[in-house]
Amino acid sequence: MPERSDSESRKLLGRLREALAEDSAGQARLDKITKLIASSIGTEVCSIYLFRDAETLELCATEGLKAEAVHQTRMRLGEGLVGRVAKSARIVNTADAPSEKGFRYMPETGEEIYSSFCGVPIQRLGEQLGVLVVQSKASRDYSSDEVYALEVVAMVLAEMTELGAFVGEGAALSPLHQRPAMFKGGTAQEGAAEGHVWLHEPRVVVTNPIADDPEVEKQRLTKAIEDLRVSVDELLAGAQGGDKDQVQVLEAYRMFANSKGWLRRMEQDIDQGLTAEAAVEKEQSTARARMAQATDAYLRDRLHDLDDLSNRLLRNLTGQGSDTGADMPENPILIARNIGPAELLDYGRKLKGIVLEEGSVGSHATIVARALAIPLVIHADKITTEALNGDMILVDGDEGHVHLRPDDTVVTAFRDKTAMRANAQERYASIREKPATTLDGETVSLLMNAGLMADLPSLPSSGAEGVGLFRTELQFLIRNQMPGRTELAELYSHVMDSAGDKSVVFRTLDIGSDKVLPFMTPTDEPNPALGWRAIRVGLDKPGVLRMQLQALLRAANGRPLKVMFPFIAQYDEYKAARAEMDKAIEREKRLGHRLPSDLKTGAMLETPSLGFAPQKFFEEVEFISIGGNDLKQFFFAADRENERVRKRYDTLNVSFLSFIEGIANRCNTTKTPLSFCGEDAGRPVEALCLAAMGLRALSMRPASIGPVKSLLRRSNLSEVRDVINEARNRGDQSVRPAVMDYLSNQG
């Protein structure tokens, strides 16, 4: 076939627009489109395959193959050359299809007489919708111009599929964004929520992908890119001297915004007949497809930058900003690719749940979601491209599952589960004021974790005896500048006022690792969780630590005060931190400020090394809190941000429980108060086993106190300890099966 000129490509798109504009059913449109493409490209066969479900493609229209194969021929994702195109999101262009790896002959189609094959993915922003295929008897490769023309046509087909132009009978032609969909993600904050989708960044809809006048479209694109460059330059000027990561991202934005190659590719798309916004989206879809295949972290970050910049450019072109004017639906469930802590706090308790495509169990957003007790599911891949504002959605934070537009059976099962949870909470309310005393007379103190003023209203209703951990870094993370000493003192005083006569343990700044302050220069570390963080930062850069200690002393204003230093790995670090407290006390004395009536300083035991600290440490420290989340990842060498390994090791592993028991025994010898803080403290079976190992104080999220207390009050710790010892003696790797069997026999 002779090479196609730009005008001929535009003619094809013009004919496609006429076909799409006709008042006909979706099947009739598809049939006409395959004929148009085949005649324009000059090939005997043109076929369109669409997904009928996430794993199955269906032949939905063809020119050249047997008509009776339509809606009968199906293949799995990855099966045959068509399945390969769909799975890889890459073009397959071959002169000898039968010799290609993975080729599968479909006899019902009559395709045995065709040698050459070219398959192009029909995709939109990373979402695979189907495959456009052309075939011919002659053994030849399709030219680069022909392949490019097919890519442009596939882009238009993707947009029109998104807009519902091909709706018909059968699953493959059912409307998009109306089918039930289930996403399996990861649990970041437990709980269940039913509500309606609220997109943090509403999708841009390209309603007219085919251009009338290419020159006008190129002028629109040039103007939009000029505006984009100005806005990026302004953002970059405002960010200089601030967050290094933010500056790097904006530098990447500027690089892409000034990329001649990016502009040239979009102008070429326009010359082929696309509108400016369709050209931007075509390049964005290509970047998303490359992102899905990229294994290099740096490349993925740069592709993310290009994706974000494309969204900005699309909003410039279409005028579809983040504020669409739509009202937030009843019981909103926030859907986003990712979100920062300040943005999440702006939503506050209006949200019933949160679902993120990215995120991590230790991210700022997760910390805020836990503080607000909002169920959060992370790693829900591609939910932002599937969900629409107002869609019904169910979030199961316990299992990490999200049901979008669920059918009636799923809704019924979900509501039954939440009803059971609600009934259980009512039962827990009856023991709210009762102690967590076991059947054999051991009492365990149950405390709550907090980090925001919003947490504290739940203190009386939760049944907690106090705040076992108040995370002070949240007030720093949500701001763009360092808070002042007076401001912090007022905040900490308000926390103590809200707690009333119940104690509050304030943990000094735990920054570094996955918590980098916006106004501090981040360090480039290969493994930040094991790097310069928490007390290491506080001792190396003591200005912030001293200011925070002074604010805490002033907030106490004659009341008792408990302060805990995070990530103490050896005795000398505790001594150095305590020395900073002593200096702060002396300074407050000189200034004539009122000192706490009783001051206790403690340490978080988050590294195995501190469990083997000298006896002098256990004698000198005034209390210890085991930071279970970090201790567990270091004990098992299993990064809790790594989904492949973080669930591989059980908290009820014999080795881990024996280590916890050793710490409890050392603290008993020196009469040092010991508590356990972390996710496992709020899991009833884990909490029971920790108590059996000698722990008499557990700190957890407020909603967990009722379930933990209920199980403790129905259990005999000495019997549970016997079960654990028997499992250890047998050589069991985990005591979980034995303990669960014991509990089931107890009824």
UniProtKB/TrEMBL annotation:
Domain GAF: from-to ranges: 25-171
Biological-process GO terms, alphabetical: phosphoenolpyruvate-dependent sugar phosphotransferase system
Keyword flag Cytoplasm: yes
InterPro entries recorded: GAF, GAF-like_dom_sf, PEP-util_enz_mobile_dom, PEP-utilizing_PTS_enzyme, PEP_util_C, Phosphohistidine_dom_sf, PTS_EI-like, PTS_EIN
Catalytic activity: L-histidyl-[protein] + phosphoenolpyruvate = N(pros)-phospho-L-histidyl-[protein] + pyruvate
SUPFAM superfamilies cross-referenced by the UniProt entry: Enzyme I of the PEP:sugar phosphotransferase system HPr-binding (sub)domain, GAF domain-like, Phosphoenolpyruvate/pyruvate domain, Phosphohistidine domain
Keywords, sorted A to Z: Cytoplasm, Kinase, Magnesium, Metal-binding, Phosphotransferase system, Sugar transport, Transferase, Transport
Enzyme Commission number: 2.7.3.9
Molecular function as annotated in GO: kinase activity; metal ion binding; phosphoenolpyruvate-protein phosphotransferase activity
Cofactor(s) annotated in UniProt: Mg(2+)
Location(s) in or outside the cell: Cytoplasm
Enzyme class: transferase
Recorded GO CC terms: cytoplasm
Keyword Magnesium: yes
Cited NCBIfam families: PTS_I_fam (TIGR01417)
Family that this chain belongs to: Belongs to the PEP-utilizing enzyme family.
Entry protein name: phosphoenolpyruvate--protein phosphotransferase
Protein source organism: Cognatishimia activa
Protein's gene: ptsP
